[in-house]
Amino acid sequence: MNEPASASIFDQPAGRAARLFAITPRAAILIAVALLGAAFMLAVQNDRLVRAEKLRQAAVQAQILAESVAAPLAFDDKPATREYLAALRSNPEVKAAGVYNEKGAFVAGFSTAEVSLPAAIHVTLPSISGRDVIVTEQVAQGGTALGSVYLRTSLESWPRRALRYVGIALVVLMASLLIAVLGSSYASLREAHAKLQAEIRTREQAEEALRQSQKMEAMGQLTGGVAHDFNNLLMVASSGLDLMERTSDPAKIERLKNGIRQAVDRGAKLTQQLLTFARRSPMHPEIIDIGQRIYGMDALLDRSLGEHIVVDLRLPSGLWPIEVDPSQFEVALLNITLNARDAMPQGGTIVIDAENVASAGNEPDQVRISVSDSGTGIPADMIAQVFEPFFTTKGVGQGTGLGLSQVYGFARASGGEVRIESEPGRGTTVSLVIPRSQKLPAIPERAAATTPAAVKQQCILLVEDDDHVAEMITEMLVALGYESERAVSADAAMVRLEQSISFDLVLSDMVMPGKRNGMDLVREINARWPKVPTLLMTGYSAAAASASNDNIRLLLKPFAIEDLSAQLEAASAEKQPG
Amino acid sequence: MAALGAFVVAAITVSPLMAAPSLEDAVKASYLFKFGPFVDWPPSTFANTGGSFQICISGQDPFGSVMDEVVRGQRIHGRPVTVRRLSGASPLDCQILFLGKPTKTDAKMPSDVAGQPILTVADADDGTTSGMIEFVLQGGRVRFQIDDGAARASGLRISSKLLGLAVAVDKR
After folding, report:
1. Do A80 and B36 touch (CB under 8 A)?
2. Per-residue pLDDT tens for B46-67?
3. B76 near A CB under 8 A
4. A143–B76: do the CB atoms touch at under 8 Å?
5. Do the Cβ atoms of A77 and B2 come within 8 Å?
6. Residue of B nearest to A79 (CA)
């Protein structure tokens, strides 16, 4: 799956350019050949220059000789002529030199063994014969020709010439060697780079595969745990219903009903935990009074923890308010206490205390809520792992490993943190540290306290695709004293609304088949009939977060009849004129 | 070292014949011409020569036609060379004047050449004449001595190359 991406790196213009300028063996050979050619040209040019230089030197020597021998030649002074010639003899490059009279006849001169002097000459242009330069020069005085001189010098002695060529060859050799070394090192570098790239790709693939398998393992654990929990809950519910059918004792029915309700509550909580973990659950931050919230959880805690656990609440008055999602806060606290209970199989006391932590340095004011147990504790090497999703010390089916990760997620989302201190055998203290809010808590309205039946007959359009859910909600609405009509999809609801606007409120599910979903429906209604109140229901959706951002009233499934009543009233009240 | 002078290879005994000039005289004729390139004259001296370089011979002419042979087709300082035998005429337009033995017609040596830019050449052993350059015989070879002071006094410049070949310079 990484293949196309990494292949495309090499197809980029920069990569192509790099490849163009890369030194391949062929390029190295080409450069070496070019160097050789350049060296050859240089040698030829050098030779030409040396030749020209030698010609000039020989001409100058001949001129000097001609000037010197002018008088001795004119007046037949042979000893003087020979002396001048002898001076040239000391130069090893001069192979022959001769002086000739005005008639071109030989007067005096010398030559080495290899060459001989011509018997007579006439003045010509300088010429090159083999490796020798031959120069003739007129001897003249005052414009009168008196004779001529002949000079034959070697162009360049062999050792000197060889030395020059060896020098050039050495330079070429060094340059070629350098290119070869550079080329080979570059080639090996390229090869290493390609290998590294391949290695990286393989590693990435392996890591991806590992992640995938870890994910699958986690999924397996999760589904195993969740399925087990749900089966238990369903067992309680279905057996409770069976038993209710077989009895007419109101007290027993009441007990069974309570059992079923508890099972359903636990199921709801479980899904809530999963959603919190997945961070898909919409957060509804509110300013809350911690003391009030925790005292309000009293019954819930007692019911969840069992009879052999004593909860000791040590909540001072004057705790600072915090801004958190209240239900998430409750779930987090419940998760911590459930863990505390499980750490004390023989029973014991769970202490929940809270305190204000005044700001120190850069830290803002915070409120710390601690839950301490006197249980088994957590070994030091496991403390770092307890917040990891799906980490659990309990057996399969007993825990999902999501409890403390929900706590962690909640704390982070609320701008705070979780601290855990534990001593094996002595107990564990888990602390939630949440920043103080500067706002004041709203006075909680007790929705359940209002009497549901005291409403006038209102007609509600219920948009819900699931038949069973629709049936149950219709029953609830009837119980609350509403009239209702059902539409099976958002599209159907729009058709119905266009026929007549005779509804006091639209109650819609979020996810439904069709062109529109519940969100689109609500937006359209708000745009076209702004006076019609709307209420969305959802259990889970990524869009739920954006719904809360859009200030769309939301009812989280599963909900109790009291919640439905309260939300319906609130939605209606919002759109009441005045 | 150049003062050792030049030698003529041929040391053949001089023929007593009067008609043909001896080898010695032929060498002298050649030298007479070759002195030209080694001496500089003031440019004004060529004003009345018609552009030619004049070699004059006064008194007896020992060279005869040999002299004419030597200068044929030759140039000195870019000028064609002519040979003039004075026979008592004025030597004023000459560049080189060879003073031969006086004849009856010009018994006295032309005295009016003194101070003029004329290179006078004579035989040293003559006894009757003297010039700026005098031929001497040394070991059977023709050589010369030079009176550079006299030449300078006459506005002539003799090349050091020539001076170097003289057996003696400024002997007087």
Report:
1. no
2. 877 778 888 998 888 888 888 8
3. yes
4. yes
5. yes
6. B6
Residue of A nearest to B70 (CA): A102
Q: Backbone phi, then psi, for A487, in 5-degree steps?
A: -120, 140
Pick the CATH number of A452-574 from 3.50.50.60, 1.20.1250.20, 3.40.50.2300, 3.20.20.70: 3.40.50.2300
Report d(CA B87, CA B61) in Å as an integer: 10
With contact defined as beta carbons under 8 Å apart, do A315 and A353 qualify? yes
- On chain B, the residues whose CB falls within 8 A of the CB of A70 are 161
Number of domains in chain B: 1
Domain range for B54 is: 2-170
Phi then psi for residue B41, to 5 deg, are -105, 150
Q: Contact at 8 Å (CB) between A510 and A519?
A: yes
Backbone angles phi, psi at A213, to 5 degrees: -70, -35
The continuous run of DSSP H or E covering A548 comes out as helix A542-549
- Residues A378-432 have pLDDT tens digits of 888 888 778 776 677 666 555 566 678 778 888 888 888 899 988 888 889 999 9
Contact: A143, B38; criterion CB under 8 Å: no
Supply the pLDDT for residue A545.
61
Q: What is the pLDDT of residues A182-230, one digit of tens each?
A: 888 888 999 999 999 999 999 999 988 887 777 777 677 667 767 777 8
Domain boundaries, chain A: 284-435, 452-574
Contacts of A74 in chain B (CB under 8 A): 34, 37-38
CATH number of the domain enclosing B53: 3.40.50
Q: A76 contacts in B (CB within 8 Å)? A: 6-9, 27
Binned at pLDDT 50, 70 and 90, residue B11 comes out as: very low
The predicted structure's pLDDT at residue A187: 86
Q: Are the beta carbons of B7 and A78 separated by less than 8 Å? A: yes
SS3 per-residue string spanning A178-211: HHHHHHHHHHHHHHHHHHHHHHHHHHHHHHHHHH
Can you tell me the distance from the alpha carbon of B58 to that of A313, in angstroms, rounded to the nearest whole number?
163
Cα torsion A238, A242, A247, A248 to 10°: value is: 70
- The answer to whether the CB atoms of B2 and A71 lie below 8 A apart is yes
Measured in angstroms, the CA of B105 and the nearest CA of chain A are apart by 33
**CB distance B165–A75 less than 8 Å?**
yes
Distance from CA of A166 to the nearest CA of B (A): 47
| Nearest residue on chain B to A146, alpha-carbon basis | B34
- Peptide bond between residue A558 and the one before it cis (omega within 30 degrees of 0): yes
Smallest CA–CA separation between B161 and chain A, in Å? 6
Q: What is the pLDDT of residues B69-89, one digit of tens each?
A: 888 888 888 888 989 888 777
Q: Which two tokens stand for residue A537?
A: 């229901």
Q: What CA dihedral angle connects A536, A540, A543 and A548, to 10 degrees?
A: 60
CB contacts, 8 Å: B31 with chain A: 75
Q: Are A337 and A312 in contact (CB under 8 A)?
A: no
Complex ipTM tops 0.90? no
**Rounded Cα distance, A230 and A216, in Å:** 20
Report residue A541's pLDDT band, with 50, 70 and 90 as the boundaries: low
Listed residue (A377, A374, A375) closest to A424, CA to CA = A377
CATH fold of A284-435 reads Heat Shock Protein 90 (3.30.565)
